[in-house]
Amino acid sequence: MPDSNVIFEAFCGIIIMPLLLFWGLMNIKKEKASVGFTLIELLVVIAIISILAAILFPVFARARENARRASCMSNLKQIGLGMMMYVQDYDEKYPLGAWRLPGTTNNQPSQFVNASSPYDGSVPAKKFKSAIGDGAGYIYSWMDIIYPYVKSTQLFVCPSFTGASTIPSYGYNLYISNVRSRPSNPKSMAAVSRPSEIVLVTDYGSSYNYANAAEYCKGALPPISLLKYPHLDGGNITFADGHAKWYKAGAASICAGVNTSAAADTRQGRAWDPAIP
Predict the structure, then answer these.
(1) pLDDT (mean) for 155-171
(2) pTM of the complete model
């Protein structure tokens, strides 16, 4: 993984090596008692600089993406901490995925922010459009529920996500939030027997800000994969105990036992369904 030493060495390579080449050519010219460089000599130096740039620029790009990945992981760690604080305050129950009015169907969210209220980004529901199943709107979601603990809407934006600014970057595990059930009844900590192994929140750049195993693990081709694996062909995941880690796309420990052709609300995969022992 590129670090500060790699960047320094790359910088030295692209700057110092051509200078040394020039210095060597100058000495040769002095020995020949001539002035200036020939066209061939200049073309050789330019060619060397071009080759070095072609080699080193991808290193710089990877270093930048590593920095964005670290920033995203920090976001997810803070989200995980917010989740843990919420759970401790509310009878060890994980937060709802989305709030809906009584009597509405499974796919009808409540409009938390009405049309006359400014979408000023002051809270997640006024910044992001979320959806349960019938279209995106400015609705009250899990992000708003933990917002008092994290105090930042920017926390829900991955620096590597290039989609619309109204789309959140992270998804909350469908099998913990039970967002599609009626009534919505999220899991309790007691129902999650393997909290260090169960996905809680993950990279998932979609207005459907609840993540399910089938969709997450079948996202193998762009542009779908870029929503779920934006960091060097992988994505960050926060687990039910609050810790966060990067995983390569389709990692066996995350996607084992997942049927990617299954319906979105089919419970499957040990990393996703806390009901699986």
Answers:
(1) 93
(2) 0.77
